[in-house]
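Is this the right way to post structure tokens for a design question? Let me know if I should format differently. Anyway, here goes:
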């Protein structure tokens, strides 16, 4: 995911923030309790399995143009609406399912993103012939780079996210631009963009 944002937005160049508990965190994860929990227990940690990777890929696409907090608040609803991100189940969705999803106030009701989620589930099923979604994504893992010192140092794209984006599009995926793919790489631990000094630095898979 893109480094999650929620008001108030930290100024450019912000470094780690020490919370009331005495622990230093990336600014976006130091305050709001939902973002803090996600920062401390999930962001940057490796996930396992096809469904977990399809979930993150889908949620990153739905996040585009919104705050990550919005997605976190709706995450359980997304899981219910998209059959726990079981690729076979979502790949079988038909026009009736699309209308059901567009009427579901518990998720982000964007027709292009809903269509992309179903397209990507079908592409995920097809990708099993090439080793599967998880292995495919992880084949683009870059070499570890220096720790970003401030939020200004955190990239939004990389050569690897551009390459992953192109490869996924070629494999039939949609809504997988380079920025969204860099966000995915951050979220599942391919890259570690926790700031230097953040207590979660070094947690990437």
């Amino acid at each position: 995911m893109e480094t999650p944002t929620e008001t108030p937005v930290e100024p450019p160049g912000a470094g780690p923030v020490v919370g009331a508990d005495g622990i230093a965190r990336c600014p976006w994860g130091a305050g709001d309790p939902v973002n803090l929990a996600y920062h401390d227990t999930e962001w940057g940690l490796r996930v396992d399995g096809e469904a977990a990777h399809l979930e993150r890929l889908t949620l990153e696409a739905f996040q585009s143009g919104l705050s990550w907090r919005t997605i976190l608040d709706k995450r359980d609803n997304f899981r219910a609406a998209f059959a726990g991100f079981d690729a076979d189940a979502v790949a079988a969705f038909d026009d009736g399912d699309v209308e059901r999803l567009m009427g579901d106030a518990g998720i982000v009701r964007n027709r292009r993103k809903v269509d992309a989620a179903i397209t990507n589930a079908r592409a995920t099923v097809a990708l099993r012939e090439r080793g599967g979604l998880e292995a495919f994504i992880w084949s683009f893992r870059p070499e570890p780079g220096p720790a970003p010192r401030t939020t200004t140092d955190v990239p939004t794209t990389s050569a690897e996210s551009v390459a992953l984006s192109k490869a996924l599009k070629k494999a039939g995926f949609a809504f997988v631009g380079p920025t969204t793919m860099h966000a995915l790489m951050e979220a599942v631990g391919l890259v570690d963009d926790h700031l230097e000094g953040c207590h979660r630095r070094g947690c990437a898979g």
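Format looks fine. Someone answered above. Worth noting: Residues 1-9 have pLDDT under 50 and may be disordered. The longest helix spans residues 111-127.
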